[in-house]
Amino acid sequence: MHVIIVGAGPSGLVLSLILARASIQVTLLDSEATIDSRPRAAHYAPSAVRVLQQAGVLADVRRDGFMPQDMTWRKIDGTPIVTLKDCSQSRHNPEALTVLPLNLLGKLLLKHAEDNPKIELGWNQRVVDIGQDAGRAWVVTRDQAGDLVEIWGDYVVGCDGANSQVRKSLFGEKNFPGKTWHAQIVATNVYYPFEKFGYDDINFIIHPTDYYMAARITTDGLWRVSYGEDTTLTLDEVIAHQPAKFARMLPGHPQPTDYRLLNVGPYRIHQRCADAMRVGRICLAADAAHLCNPFGGMGLTGGLVDVGGLAECLIGIAEQRVDAEVILNVYDRVRRGVYHTIIDPISSSNFLRVSATDPETAVEKDEYLAMVKRAGDDEGLRKELDDVSSLIVLLSRGLRDFFKGEGGL
Ligand SMILES: Cc1cc2nc3c(=O)[nH]c(=O)nc-3n(C[C@H](O)[C@H](O)[C@H](O)COP(=O)(O)OP(=O)(O)OC[C@H]3O[C@@H](n4cnc5c(N)ncnc54)[C@H](O)[C@@H]3O)c2cc1C
To answer: Can you name one GO molecular function term for this protein (predicted)?
Structure first.
């Protein structure tokens, strides 16, 4: 089997590695000259950790990353509202929540892909169209010289991110059902000693306008601060406003000389899911298929679970253990089901919790925070909470169960 993957982001790279480990030939194409290094994902929930294991990279990810300890929701003055102790449960869970900034994860994945003879990497190859017939699927790419080239395979997978050309070619330029929040989020990477102010590894600050997340993302003291900003500000205005925002929001009210800022990246946030994640021999995965806001880190986690499941489907097809038509429909149904029942509602409530909840009454009125508080003194409830947090893991495992029931594995 030969699979063409469009997009060498984290989802495309991980899918390539899993398929190549099963001796499937992969052509991985990207429109850019190398991987994207903007500050984006950093936290990978247990369901994604299992997929990193499937790709054979977990040991390296664990070597370079770490497993966070406590997670606290706070008022803007830093006062803790409630804390979830040992949020990754790293002592009990071999697939514990793991942190590694995406630029570092990307480099690590790329190294593994470059070392794998089953993966052919094509940079500066923008996919501009796709097609298929009964026995084959293909992409049309435009290279740097402007020449169009057709590349043929058995399947095409669009891992080409939020503005996916594969999705647009399948469903139309503007067809990506869902909504865009009336909010602008600014993601920054900054060296600043939050721990001196009693901040934990992950902190969510609840406030109507100055809401933010501050999370340690490396072991050498780099933090991700993602904060809400006025939607009317331009990029230049966001950058100019950042020192005033930090001085007002962060503990210790720092001036620019008190911290080292590495990146500032504003972006709009969405909750969207494509009408289908499979049309014939062409599939979509990760951001190309669905988007959510970043509070709670469910974007790439959901994307990695897509590619873990899709890889199992394609490997089953290559080994003639499953019916392609049946199993790819299962992929489509299960993964969109998980988006609509888990990722969309949970990530939406994560965002509303920090941006639209009264911090004074949050712990009484917000069901989740109330449960976190009660779980502090109740081991049984804590276990229940961890089980709820594992819901995505359980549902992602559903694909395997469907395999057995419908696909014949
Ligand atoms: C600030 C921020 C914080 C986040 N934090 C988290 C987190 O903690 N945990 C989490 O799970 N998720 C998080 N996310 C979401 C996460 O970063 C994304 O879900 C993830 O990067 C999507 O990966 P992807 O491989 O699907 O797409 P991308 O990373 O967007 O990669 C797509 C690739 O496709 C290429 N491409 C695009 N168009 C074409 C074309 N026509 N032809 C060829 N190649 C093309 C691009 O060059 C790119 O390399 C965060 C997002 C943001 C913005």
So the answer is: FAD binding
